[in-house]
């Protein structure tokens, strides 16, 4: 039986994370990273990221500029997986450090890397590429808040011109405790692996 190949565009639709571990902060900024795992033969992984502003743990991207919600525009075939992670709340200094890392990785890319994927993150409209994804382990970046993984198949998506929503259930990526206050013991919020909201993506078949 022939493998079904489809060209898909994957964009952010909405995020709901009940527990952000950010104390009294109602507005927080996070980095969402996405990985397509073996989207097609010969391609082991494609990566993308977007910064996300949440208000009380929620965000709706339906009216947000396309450039701030696009994750992938890729061919997929047969069985593959989609992994999502969302960092803890980041301040301006955290983001600036990440941008500097990404810029340095971008400048180190060789001309022969033809299979790189653009990863728009905040101020960096065209960087970093897959090089940064492969070297992210060298960067002591922000801690992860939640993670999710879905096993998919190209037949799950509609024919050309169709669109569907895909919701990934997210779980705590680490043990979450409340911010420490004077003379107060930290309060356990979630154990690692416990449910903590969902991320919904819009998948359009091109």
Question: Any chance you could write out the topology, listing elements then pairs?
Answer:
Elements: E1 5-16, E2 27-40, E3 43-55, E4 58-60, E5 70-77, E6 79-87, H1 92-107, H2 130-135, E7 144-153, E8 163-172, E9 176-177, E10 188-190, E11 195-205
Structure characterization notes:
The chain has helices at about 90-105, 130-135; strands at about 5-15, 25-40, 45-55, 60, 70-75, 80-85, 145-155, 165-170, 175, 190, 195-205. The protein is mainly beta and about 210 residues long. The strands form two sheets. Strands 1, 2, 3, 4, 5, 6, 7, 8 and 11 form a nine-stranded antiparallel β-sheet that branches. The protein has a two-stranded antiparallel sheet with strand order 9-10. A hairpin with a 2-residue loop joins strand 2 and strand 3 (about 45-55). The longest helix is centred in the middle third of the chain and has 16 residues, at about 90-105. The protein starts with a strand and ends with a strand. Mean pLDDT is about 80; it is low at about 105-135.
């Amino acid at each position: 039986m022939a493998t079904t190949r489809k060209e898909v565009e994957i964009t952010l639709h909405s995020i709901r994370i009940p527990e952000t571990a950010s104390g009294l902060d109602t507005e927080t900024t996070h980095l969402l990273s996405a990985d397509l795992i073996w989207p097609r033969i010969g391609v082991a992984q494609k990566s993308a990221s977007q910064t996300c502003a949440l208000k009380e743990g929620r965000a709706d991207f339906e009216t947000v500029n396309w450039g701030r919600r696009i994750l992938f525009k890729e061919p997929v075939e047969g069985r593959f997986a989609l992994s999502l992670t969302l960092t803890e709340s980041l301040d301006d200094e955290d983001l600036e450090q990440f941008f500097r890392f990404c810029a340095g990785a971008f400048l180190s890319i060789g001309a022969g890397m033809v299979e790189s994927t653009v990863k728009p993150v905040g101020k960096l409209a065209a960087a970093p590429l897959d090089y940064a994804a492969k070297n992210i382990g060298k960067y002591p970046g922000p801690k992860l808040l939640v993670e999710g993984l879905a096993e998919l198949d190209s037949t799950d998506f509609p024919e050309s011109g169709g669109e569907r929503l895909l919701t990934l259930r997210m779980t705590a990526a680490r043990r979450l405790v409340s911010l420490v206050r004077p003379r107060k013991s930290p309060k356990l919020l979630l154990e690692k692996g416990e449910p903590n909201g969902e991320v919904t993506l819009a998948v359009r078949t091109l």
